UniProtKB/TrEMBL annotation, chains A, B:
GO molecular function, one term: RNA binding
Stored InterPro entries: Alpha/beta_knot_MTases, MRM3-like_sub_bind, Ribosomal_eL30-like_sf, rRNA_Methyltransferase, SpoU_MeTrfase, SpoU_subst-bd, tRNA_m1G_MTases_N
Record-given protein name: TrmH family RNA methyltransferase
Keyword list, A-Z: Methyltransferase, Transferase
GO cellular component, one term: cytoplasm
Transmembrane segments: none
Organism: Sinomonas puerhi
One of the protein's GO biological processes: methylation
Pfam families associated with the record: MRM3-like_sub_bind (PF22435), SpoU_methylase (PF00588)
Domain RNA 2-O ribose methyltransferase substrate binding: 33-115
Length: 298, 298
């Protein structure tokens, strides 16, 4: 355990960390902030796995209060193993963090995004693509839902929110350190590459002609050996939800553009059983990704 | 169309409307604010339906800019039919509203919540219960997801966020005017009454022993006539997801309490296929409610 505790919230080092709240500083340094026990623990777990594999670190600076380390023994153990840990008091941690209360721990992490080619080379079965999603909370929620549904990667197209924005990082609840993320993809090129890698492409579109429930029913019926090929073509367009799929999710206000929809194999609507006119993009993405996961895994 | 336009943001009437941003004023007057075209349109549609049935109004004051009324002819038509419409400029509307930009329209609405008995008397098949959910955005998202999934009612237990909070109202995207809402229910009494009304009670619990996918599979197999009774009892605890169900969803930080979980027939986990440790409550509620809706309707 390091003996000296940082107590000056106006120290240069503290200011340098705090600057990562701005996109300019993040992009210049190719670093971002993880705040709070949940995010930092997942960063440290990834870091430990990478170091064990001789890969580049996932954490490069680490600041925590003694109270936090006492409260979370697993984090304390991982933190000490990095050799990076510096103790800091609550004023210093608050000055570093974007949140009012970083709950006693802050890490500086190198950006994690990977090239699209690397993702596609790993033969993914489920990819979530955010097309110009703007709200950091929505982006983080979709990334977390993609992780929950076992997606192999998440893509944010150019014009999307910065996933390294502190609010987005918080909303991922650590999933940013679990799922490969591809940034600033151009949608048409992305769809072409995904298709070449064997993925079908579905656009989530509330006005789409295909009903997600029909796709799920047909997938279940094929599993049970009972579907008629002609029925499938009539109702579900012949799309196999159990196959590898990239889902496109649109901007929260405008949805997918006509050009984006035209890129997909099919436009698929989540059924609305009540009187809601639409789902928010996070909710729609959750239902679509879980439908794919379920069809792929049963 | 009324001829005089309100232009003084410091007028008493404007201040009175603005005060509805506080819970104290809302509870004293039993009124709340709907802001923006989507929420106000749904309020006006409900109001028109109620007036046609000779029931109490759903809107009692209505303020809009000429630009907004020109842009949304359906809203203008509904607004004029109320006889309540007053024109206001953007400064007045901004002073009335909680949002920075109310997009040109604000309505004052009487509170909508109904007694639990009235909901249960209508023989509901799907109810979403929020147990001490604290974040207004989460509460609104769950209400909207419940509407989308065709739920018959939403219940907020005592200790939950005020659903009439402007941020919660916005997050419902109009669904607050679609789905009956019951407020301040005491969870144990609610569960007892729901059970007496023929509903099964499921607790959404990430650590629960039943897997939501198993419940869905068994429900589908019963539909197809292929399930073995003994298998069903072994895996899904014999619960029929196609039957009337009340789902309990817990506080975002702590989940459901042990006492709340103990009230349910079963504790059910949404499967986590990836490495996420948990789902946020809005995501979990969406998956659970859609699973019930799908089992009930196929």
């Amino acid at each position: 355990m390091p003996s000296e505790t940082m107590t000056n919230p106006r120290a240069d080092r503290v200011r340098d960390v705090a600057k990562l709240a701005t996109r300019t500083a993040r992009n210049r340094r190719r670093q971002f902030l993880a705040e709070g026990p949940q995010a930092v623990r997942e960063a440290l777990r990834l870091d430990a796995a990478r170091r064990a594999d001789g890969k580049e670190p996932a954490v490069v600076e680490l600041y925590a209060s003694e109270a936090c380390l006492s409260r979370y023994p697993e984090i304390a153990h991982l933190a000490e193993a990095t050799g990076l840990l510096r103790l800091a008091d609550d004023d210093v941690l608050a000055a570093m963090a974007d949140t009012v209360s970083p709950q006693g721990i802050v890490a500086v992490c190198p950006m994690l995004d990977v090239p699209l080619d690397a993702v596609l080379a790993a033969r993914p079965r489920l990819i979530a693509v955010m097309c110009r999603v703007q709200d950091p909370g929505n982006a983080g929620t979709i990334l977390r839902a993609a992780d929950s549904a076992g997606a192999d990667a998440v893509v944010l197209t150019s014009g999307s929110v910065d996933i390294y924005n502190p609010k987005a990082v918080r909303s991922t609840a650590g999933s940013l350190f679990h799922v490969p993320v591809v940034l600033a993809a151009e949608t048409a090129a992305l769809v072409e590459a995904a298709r070449a890698a064997g993925l079908g492409v579905l656009a989530a579109d509330g006005a789409g002609p295909l009903d997600l429930d029909i796709l799920q029913d047909e997938s279940a019926a094929r599993r049970a050996g009972g579907v008629q090929a002609s029925d499938a073509v009539a109702a579900g367009g012949g799309y196999r939800l159990e196959g590898p799929t990239a889902w496109l999710f649109g901007n929260e206000a405008q949805g997918l553009s006509e050009a984006e929809k035209a890129l997909a194999d099919h436009r698929v609507a989540v059924p609305l059983y009540g009187r809601a006119e639409s789902l928010n993009v996070g909710t729609a993405a959750t239902v679509c990704l879980y439908a794919s996961a379920r069809s792929q895994r049963r």
